[in-house]
Amino acid sequence: MTDNGDDREVALDEDLDILPDQTTDDTDAGWGERPQSNDDRLLAERPPHWD
């Protein structure tokens, strides 16, 4: 009789990172650019009715 593994327990580690949330290719640094914040421009262009 062969063991097909149905009764085998597998311990799952919650701290295990299989894949990162974001790769360096997805960032400005990955493209050779400096990180930029869009917050200042968005606040300056805020419509008057949002005050």
Automatic annotation (TrEMBL):
Chain segments carrying region Disordered: 1-51
Acidic residues composition-biased segments: 12-28
Basic and acidic residues bias (residue ranges): 1-11, 36-51
Protein name: Uncharacterized protein
Organism field: Actinocatenispora comari
Source taxonomy: Bacteria, Bacillati, Actinomycetota, Actinomycetes, Micromonosporales
